[in-house]
Every structure is written in structure tokens, then in C-alpha cells.
Amino acid sequence: MKSMNTISPAAESVEATTPSPAETPNSAATSETADTPESTNDSASDSAGASAPATAPDTASATAPAQQSAPAPTSARALLKQLQQQFPAFRDCLPLAIGIDKQLLSRLPGLDRKIMRAALGIHTGSMRYLRAMEKATVRYDLDGVAGAEVTDTHRSHAKEQLQQRFKKEADRKKLEKAAAAEAEAARLRQEKLQQLASKFSRG
């Protein structure tokens, strides 16, 4: 049976041919740089000539530190933390729009694609996200704006993923319990052997 990769929006974007409004990457917010104010004493300084006193430098502009962009995250978990702080869709663990990877690249042009896909995999594979997808009706863009509907197929896939997780967790606990019981039995046998050895040594 062909495996479905319906949960990860990054993978789903490959299948989408005509993106919905929610899948269209939002324009990156442009930062506005304040223009240096023009001197209001231009005419006065022109008429005064060389004898006019020098205008005091703008100390605020001189002392203001140069703007530096934040360093790009070097790991998937660091990037995911940044996305959760920056975008409501990640912060609130909303079902992501198909093509969310394109939205991210539009908003964060310097993003490393490999790290981005790993971060999306961690996020969409989490229990919290799968639970949200299991009952979801619509998907959301980065800013939390509702868009395309979640299909029954995608909801079913999320439910299957959760069931597999629960089964795997139950199997793990079962193995841990069996291992603990075996370790306890071995400890009791060792104690009995030590008691027997101590009894014969006194005799």
C-alpha cells in the first residue's frame, strides 16, 4: 500500500498544483529605516559663510549601534523554537497550510532548506500536532489566518499515526516492565546464592 505523506505540509506542497489563498506565501515585512532629518538651518549657514559656528553633530545618530540581523538557527530544534516565537500557527500548533515551506522561505529568505524541513518534520510529527490534525477542519497560514479545509484523508492519516504511536509506547512500556521483572528475579537469585554460600562457609 502506498505510504501517504499527508501530515507534513512541506511534503504536501509538492502535490499541490493550485495553491489556495492560505497557501500563498505572505509578503515579508519590510523594515523601515528612518531617514536622516534635513538641517533646518541650511539658509542660515549659507549666509553666515565661514564665520558661522559649526553645527553640533547628531549624537543620537553617531552613537546608535548598527542594526544586525539575528544569526540563522543552526539546528532544527533551534529553528522550531524561533518559529514558535515568531508565527502564531506554530505557537498555537494549528494545522498548517499546504505549502507552508514556501511561506517560510518567503518570510525568511536566508533559511536553510534542510534545517527547515527537519524542523517541520519535528513539529508535524509531534503528538500535539497530530492530535490537532485528527480533529481539524481548516488549515492556517503563518499568521494564523484560516484557509483551505482539512480533508478526511488527512484527518484519518493523523489518527493512524496517533494509534501507531500509542501502540509503540505501550509495547515499550511492556518491554520495560518485563526487563524490570527479570532484573528483580536475577537479584533475588543472587541473594539466595549469597545466603547459601555464607551458610556453607560458616559450616
Structure characterization notes:
The longest helix is centred in the C-terminal third of the chain and has 51 residues, at 152-202. The protein has a two-stranded antiparallel sheet with strand order 1-2. The chain is elongated and about 85 Å long. The protein has a domain at 73-150: ProQ/FinO domain (Fertility Inhibition Protein O, Chain: A, Domain 1, Orthogonal Bundle). Helix 8 runs antiparallel to helix 9. The protein has helices at residues 9-15, 42-48, 59-63, 76-86, 88-91, 100-107, 113-124, 127-134, 152-202, and strands spanning 138-140, 146-149. 56% of the residues lie in helices and 3% in strands. The chain has 203 residues and is mainly alpha-helical.
